Amino acid sequence: MTKFEDQLFDELMEQHGDALATAERPRRNTRGVWIAAGAAGAAGAAILGLTVFSGGTPAYAVDENPDGSVSVSIKDPSGIGPANEELARRNLPITVLPGPGEPSCPNPANGRASGQPYTEAPLKVDVRHKSGDKIFLIAYPNCGWLWVQPPAR
Amino acid sequence: VSETVEKPELAKPKRPPDVTGAAAEFERIYRAHVGEITAFFARRTADPQAVADLTADTFVQAIASFGTFDPARGKARAWLFGIARRVFAQHCELASRGRGTVERLAGHRELDIDEAAELVVRIDAEREGRVLLDGMEALAAIDREVIELVDIAGLDRTEAAAALGITSGALRIRLFRARARLRKVAGEGK
């Protein structure tokens, strides 16, 4: 970037940044939320290679897949904020929320929502749902689980 | 008695919080294409201040219409070139009416020496393109634009068609005819 280009960008943000800050961006087309990555699921195994964590790497990963879905991993609760920043930066309709403590740990057997330990394979979330609603991934810090809140029907 | 007055540091312009992520998305588009848009105007005028003003106007209009720009339906590059064309047409229209000072959308900001020098280099780099455009005066405006966007600016045919607001089929036909006319004109000039 040249000085002219940098100065012009600062000037644009100063004078017109308010319009951008509230600009609604077109939503992506969508259909139901699904999880392809159970802890031992085949789909989960297929995308595991895209986001492998090791020591010193970020505490989260966000990957957009060729099929239109998005893979999200949270290594630990410190990754929630940066993951949300990255999701917003990419204009993806997903937000990770810190969930309540241990007494409310989700039960994988109840069938109402799907999730997995967030240190394992990324959760693969289809963002092409028609409603355009936000999808919430709930991270249960004391349980170590990342959970998908299905959209309201 | 001497007194040292410390110069206050110039604060960086404040930016509002990027609630929807639109500002970050716009910044990516800006940084990817501002050079091409500056070059587009540098082929049309050798005045650095005019290049700066027209580039600024293009991105102000881009911000104003950002809510309706859908990347799934067209590339940012074609969208920006479409805006740049309209900004330049408006500039020519006002100039032809004898308006010495074009009403600025972005607010006119005088370039400092460094910025002016950068734009002079850019204008110099576009000299060949400018000469080529000048040499195509015998062609219709639309033919010149088709050739410029595809053969000089390097847009692909889909992008050029979107920037010109025509179908890809129409673009192909115009490009074929424009190149044939250009060859004819060049042949006559020899």
How would you describe this protein?
The complex is a heterodimer of chains A (153) and B (190). With 153 residues, chain A is of the alpha+beta class. Helix content of chain A is 24%, strand content 23%. Chain A has helices spanning 3-21, 42-48, 80-89; strands at residues 60-64, 69-74, 94-98, 114-117, 123-126, 135-140, 145-149. In chain A, strands 3-6-7-4 form a four-stranded mixed sheet, with helices on one face. A three-stranded antiparallel sheet of chain A has the order 1-2-5, with helices on one face. In chain A, strand 6 (135-140) and strand 7 form a beta hairpin. Chain B is mainly α and 190 residues long. Chain B is built from eight helices and no strands. The mean pLDDT of chain B is 81.
SSE map:
The complex is a heterodimer of chains A (153) and B (190).
Chain A: H1 3-21, H2 42-48, E1 60-64, E2 69-74, H3 80-89, E3 94-98, E4 114-117, E5 123-126, E6 135-140, E7 145-149
Parallel strand pairs in A: 3-6
Antiparallel strand pairs in A: 1-2, 2-5, 4-7, 6-7
Chain B: H1 22-42, H2 48-64, H3 76-96, H4 113-125, H5 127-135, H6 141-152, H7 157-164, H8 168-189
